[in-house]
Amino acid sequence: MDKVLRYLKTNQQDILEDLAHVVGWESPSHDKDRVDHCGKGLQALFQKHLGLKAEVIPQTETGNHLRFSYGSGDSQVLILTHFDTVWDVGRLSYQVKGNQAYGPGILDMKGGIVQALWGIKACRELELPLDKKIVFLCTSDEEIGSGTSRSLIEEEASKSEAVLIPEPSVAHTGALKTSRKGNGIFKMRIKGKASHSGNHHAEGISAVEEMAHQILFLHSLTDYTLGTTINAGIAHGGNRINVVAEQAEIDIDVRISKLEEAERISKRIVEAKPYLNGVSIEVEGEINRPPMVRTAQTEQLFSLAADCGKELGIDLTEASVGGASDGNFTAALGIPTLDGLGAVGDGPHAEYEHILIDQLPIRAALFAKLLAKL
């Protein structure tokens, strides 16, 4: 057996115990106190396993971001992670059922953080040569758009030769992610004219009727051949059954595979025209993350990871996915970015979110070997 894999398999229970602690430090994105508590726990783990002290980047609204630096060299590799989750405190609990471990954020992406940490630890303990500085960036607001961390992410990525992202692998296959769709969030506010639905129906202008027209328009912008989808995910309007609706709102999700689609789709949504006379429309929002496009550099990085996989007896595949991550930012800068290096499991953002325990040491070994080859 490969010596890196043997070391990590020997420590599988310790890896799982670390993960149980991190999952237990619940960290919903909007709860700064909870997120910072989790961050302090992570600092203790990095100190324990690698002797590293964090550079804390303080925030006022979100949790503080953490930057760890390991080793030295003329160039650096960025490991990009986030430790906030989508789960309210108490919604899920940590539990183990056979080879599966469940809990809030265990797959997205606390499992990946712990695996990457143990990957570096394996390099340290086994004295694998690392000739580049490794920057391990842990951010606190990825699940809510990375508003406070984006500039930090882009700054570190611009200094790096490669970016490794231990977000979850593709469910059921363990595939790495070499391209992702970009995404945008828009809100459309519609204002009509209220009137009594019985006595003065003709005097009203229904914002809900206008909303129906706008939803059909928005969905018509979907073009599967271009990889562009638009979804009116939340729509509501009016306030009384016997009143012609004066107001309505639509929350709109946009996914794009091509960068040039960002401007075109944004323009179409922001400049949407009313169908009904007397209606006014306001739209706010933007393309939050550009698409992560597979490039020749990405292909080379994946091939390097695939070679590492072969040394561990696994046949790695790659995939393009519809979800976005902070890797979209780094790839857009032209930095080779490989995503999906995290835990193997299923159910991110779902109540059955879980990881496969026996894959923890394998994926940690993959991470260690990839760092050594870089």
From TrEMBL:
InterPro entries: Bact_exopeptidase_dim_dom, Pept_M20_glutamate_carboxypep, Peptidase_M20, Peptidase_M20_dimer, Peptidase_M20A. The keyword Hydrolase applies. Gene3D superfamilies: 3.30.70.360, Zn peptidases. The lineage of its organism: Bacteria, Bacillati, Bacillota, Bacilli, Bacillales. Residues 179-271 form the Peptidase M20 dimerisation domain. Keywords: Hydrolase, Metal-binding. The keyword Nucleotide-binding does not apply. It holds the Pfam family Peptidase_M20. PANTHER family: ACETYLORNITHINE DEACETYLASE, BLL0789 PROTEIN. Signal peptide: none annotated. This is M20 family metallopeptidase.
